[in-house]
Design goal:
The complex is a heterodimer. By secondary structure, chain A is mainly β. Chain A folds into 2 domains: about 90 residues, SH3 type barrels (Roll); about 80 residues, SH3 type barrels. Chain A is built from 3 helices and 11 strands. Chain A has a 10-stranded antiparallel β-sheet with strand order 5-4-3-2-6-10-9-8-7-11. In chain A, strand 9 and strand 10 form a beta hairpin. Chain B is of the alpha/beta class. Chain B folds into 2 domains: about 120 residues, 3-Layer(aba) Sandwich (Rossmann fold); about 260 residues, Rossmann fold, CATH 3.40.50. Chain B is about 40% helix and about 15% strand. In chain B, the strands form 2 sheets. Chain B has an 8-stranded mixed β-sheet, with helices on both faces. In chain B, a hairpin with a 4-residue loop joins strand 9 and strand 10. The longest helix of chain B has 14 residues. The radius of gyration of chain B is 22 Å and the shape is elongated. Classes of the chains: A mainly beta, B alpha/beta. At the A-B interface, strand 1 and strand 10 of A face helix 1, helix 4 and strand 6 of B.
């Protein structure tokens, strides 16, 4: 019954993501076993992430499919950010906080090598940026409704429902005072 | 119901798409690789193709390019459905020839909505400009008319339509139009026109305009149900908007040719010569050749088209009596001073008939080409697959292709 097929998506249990390194865009499917990709990326028991149906493009011409491999492995610390179309594919949307904390979405600007990233970050109202960067427990920071432009070629722009940005690659980190 | 080709290397997605399309009343054709998809498109002539981008060996972009380059598949509406959803991916898809772009995941309702829109609009609702070639427009004979040098040398892509449009001077600039007419109905001029338009597609995108007596036979022979005709342009003034002209074209996916059909019911209305010249001018920006099927009579409309055409193909049958009595019509055509553009073609629509020499003698002038009788012609017409497509190796098709090369 097609009524049971609400959407055309990816392989069961997989998500498709764009992994951006300094010079390459790598698109591929990750078996996340129906969990958000952030769980796999932030898993400290392995430094690698396995990707299937891998397509490699140069960052200066990121639509050009230069190479294809059935399977590949990426070092997590070499990934500057991961782009996903939908927020729920990147992180769980069911996370709840104590109601007295009142987390809010704040516009954020940050740089990673070769890119400028803008989007929204969910933070506590009285956030200390230095403390945030130092104490944020996960390797990848989720930025929602995000846009990234290539620093040396602003015409090359990436968009996504969520970016997972490697904290170790962040150079500048700015947070707007205004709530979204 | 439409026949939709789905090209994706993910077999589970193919199965899912098959279910969804069939539930929506469409017929699905599945291909699990780019090469298989291209072959299916050629063999099956679907009404639309959904193409994945990320496929090994041949990417979706390559598939789109190859389908667009092949005259037999050039006008199949293409929808790219991909998980790579960045703005540059969309641009890449459009550049490769896709008509629409969707990113996964997508809801069933959204997908069906886009399919319906694309099926309704066809691959090219608006004539698309050809790649700039730097070549000037084909300039026809211009006896007695001085064309400013600046106009005569304007490259096709740079030529402003309104500047080239010359009111009341039909012969000012010949357009890339091939007019096909006969001296008498039943000579097979429409069949020749359709096959010629398809043959011309080997050298660039072509369209066919049916100005023959209404209701026209072009749509009938291509088994099209005209949803739009040139009648839509009649009330649009002397210079209809290019989009309106595009909307009056139907894409025949199987034959791979754009058709401007004649109305299905009789009407005394005809586009004015000024409108026709403007329409052909706009069409020439998107189509390398426009083949016009004219009625078997010299009326003001056909006279105007004959004057503005760069080539006139006059189709004569092999009936001796008709050939002998055609001299009057010939004189009318010769009075238009079309000698340089005229190509007389003897079309045999039955076995036997007069010999080539006898036909020339009866007609009183040289016949340039003979199109032999083909027993499969009737079946090809009945199936809506003209001989140039269904039997390209036949002598009829070979001669048509030769004629298309010449013109």
């Amino acid at each position: 019954m097609t009524d049971e097929i609400p959407e055309v998506s990816f392989r069961q249990g997989f998500v498709l993501a764009d992994f951006l390194a300094h010079n390459y865009r790598i698109s591929g499917e990750v078996n996340v076993r129906s969990r958000p990709l952030a769980d796999t990326l932030n898993d400290v028991t392995t430094d690698y992430i396995e990707i299937e149906n891998v397509y490699v493009s140069p960052i200066q011409n990121p639509a050009d499919l230069k190479a294809h491999y059935q399977i590949g492995s990426l070092r997590k610390d070499n990934i500057s950010k991961v782009i996903l179309t939908r927020e729920e594919h990147g992180m769980s949307k069911t996370t709840t906080y104590g109601s007295y904390i009142g987390y809010t979405l704040r516009p954020v600007f940050l740089t990673v090598p070769g890119f400028e990233v803008r989007g929204l970050l969910e933070v506590a109202p009285k956030i200390n940026i230095r403390a945030f960067m130092a104490t944020y427990a996960e390797r990848f920071i989720p930025i929602t409704e995000a846009t990234a432009t290539v620093t040396l070629n602003p015409n090359v722009r990436f968009q996504g429902g969520i970016f997972l940005v490697n904290k170790q690659h962040v150079g500048v980190f700015c947070l707007s005072e205004e709530e979204e | 119901m439409a026949r939709i080709l789905v090209i994706d290397d993910d077999r589970s997605l193919l199965r899912m798409m098959k279910l969804m399309l069939e539930k929506a009343g469409h017929e699905s054709i599945l291909a699990s690789s780019g090469r298989e998809g291209i072959q299916s498109a050629i063999d099956e002539q679907p009404d639309l193709a959904i193409v994945d981008v990320m496929m090994p060996e041949l990417s979706g972009y390559d598939v789109c390019r190859q389908l667009r380059e092949n005259p037999n598949t050039a006008n199949i509406p293409l929808l790219i459905l991909t998980a790579r959803s960045q703005p540059m991916d969309r641009q890449m898809a459009i550049d490769a020839g896709a008509d629409d772009f969707l990113s996964k995941p997508i809801t069933r309702e959204d997908l069906m909505r886009h399919l319906s829109q694309l099926l309704a609009s066809g691959a090219t609702t608006v004539p698309r400009p050809l790649e700039p070639e730097g070549e000037p427009f084909p300039i026809g004979p211009m006896e007695g008319v001085e064309i400013p040098e600046s106009q005569a040398s304007v490259p096709a892509q740079d030529a402003p339509i309104t500047d080239i449009f010359v009111e009341d001077t039909d012969r000012a600039i010949a357009l890339p139009v091939i007019a096909v007419m006969s001296l008498r109905g039943g000579s097979g001029a429409t069949t020749v026109a359709i096959n010629l338009a398809l043959g011309a597609m080997q050298h660039g995108r072509s369209c066919i305009v049916d100005l023959a007596d209404v209701p026209g036979h072009v749509a009938v022979q291509l088994q099209l149900t005209p949803t739009t005709t040139w009648l839509n342009l009649v009330d649009a003034g002397p210079q209809p908007a290019p989009k309106q002209i595009g909307a009056s074209l139907m894409m025949h996916a199987s034959a791979g040719v754009a058709v401007m059909a004649a109305p299905t019911t009789y009407t005394t209305e005809r586009p004015s010569p000024q409108t026709l010249r403007y329409v052909f001018q706009v069409l020439s920006e998107g189509f390398k050749r426009t083949v016009v099927d004219l009625p078997a009579k010299i009326d003001p409309t056909s006279e105007a088209v004959l004057r503005m055409a760069s080539h006139v193909v006059l189709v004569v049958g092999d009936d001796l009596t008709v050939l002998q009595t055609s001299s009057e019509s010939f004189r009318a055509i010769e009075a238009l001073n079309l000698t340089a553009q005229l190509h007389v073609v003897l079309n045999r629509t039955r076995p036997g008939g007069v010999s080539f020499e006898e036909a020339q003698l009866a007609l009183g002038r040289e016949i340039e080409m003979e199109l032999p009788y083909e027993p499969d012609q009737t079946a090809a017409t009945a199936q809506g697959r003209p001989l140039v497509m269904s039997s390209p190796a036949s002598m009829f098709s070979q001669n048509i292709l030769h004629l298309a090369r010449m013109l």
